[in-house]
Amino acid sequence: MTTFNDVQSKAQEEIDRVVGKERFPTLNDRPSLPYVEALVRETMRWMPVLPLAIPHYTVEDDIYKGYFIPKGTMVLGNTWAISHNTTIYDESDRFDPSRFFNLDGQLNDDDLSYAFGYGRRQCPGRHLASATIWLNMAVILAAFNIRKQKDSLGKDIPLTSGFSVSSIAVRPNPFECLITPRSDAAKALVLERIVYQH
Ligand code: HEM
């Protein structure tokens, strides 16, 4: 969100229009916020957390599409190759949630389930993960503006920190950004929650 401020504004506009500014979004709002849904999908597509899923090995000889795969071969599902396949995702390096909408403006059926792996070993936590990611994104977008940090002359500091792979998971390297409440009302809602939870 630090980099894609136009996407951020579009999602915030949808939240303000559908949910209003008197409360934060809840999971009940999920079906009514298609752009936020598309934003979650695009985040998981553009930089998958597990770009090679989790390694497995074959327990017997197999043939897949004419390739002989001996017993004991390590097999990796190449999630990155799928999520950056340019025949499915035009200009796949571009971050653009609108790619998940059909021409009639409806969300398409590409729910990014492959980001959670494949077959009977597919991630059992995927529904919890999807709900948690959606809710966190929706509430953060409702409450805060996320922008680039400024230098001493007030100019945006470019974001160049990139990503690292630790073990099998990808994560952003530490970076500076500016996170500010969107309004006094948003700030009050955040404070209300903090007080309530303690
Ligand atoms: C962004 C969040 C998450 C992503 C992207 C993710 C992704 C994945 C992937 C790609 C696999 C490997 C599937 C395969 O081998 O084909 C996996 C396995 C697994 N995940 Fe997740 N996961 C997430 C969150 C969670 C959560 C929240 C839980 C638990 C509450 C969880 C529990 C597991 C377990 C137990 C496995 C191993 C399943 C098995 O080998 O049978 N994951 N996950």
How would you sum up the global shape?
A: globular
CATH topology: Cytochrome p450
Give the name of the CATH superfamily. Cytochrome P450
Per DSSP, the total helix count is: 5
Helix content: 25-40%
> How many discrete domains?
1
Layout: helices, strands, pairs:
Blueprint: H1 5-18, H2 34-46, E1 56-57, E2 62-64, E3 67-69, E4 74-75, H3 79-83, H4 126-143, E5 144-148, E6 163-166, E7 169-172, E8 177-181, H5 184-197
Antiparallel strand pairs: 1-4, 2-3, 5-8, 6-7
Protoporphyrin IX containing FE binds at residues 49-50, 53-54, 56, 77, 115-118, 121-125, 128-129.
Describe the structure.
- With about 200 residues, the chain is an alpha+beta fold.
- The chain has one domain: Cytochrome p450.
- It contains five helices and eight strands, in the order H-H-E-E-E-E-H-H-E-E-E-E-H.
- The strands form four sheets. The protein has a two-stranded antiparallel ribbon with strand order 1-4.
- It starts with a helix and ends with a helix.
- Protoporphyrin IX containing FE binds next to helix 4.
- Pathway: Secondary metabolite biosynthesis.
- Its cofactor is heme.
- GO terms for molecular function: heme binding; iron ion binding; monooxygenase activity; oxidoreductase activity, acting on paired donors, with incorporation or reduction of molecular oxygen.
- Belongs to the cytochrome P450 family.
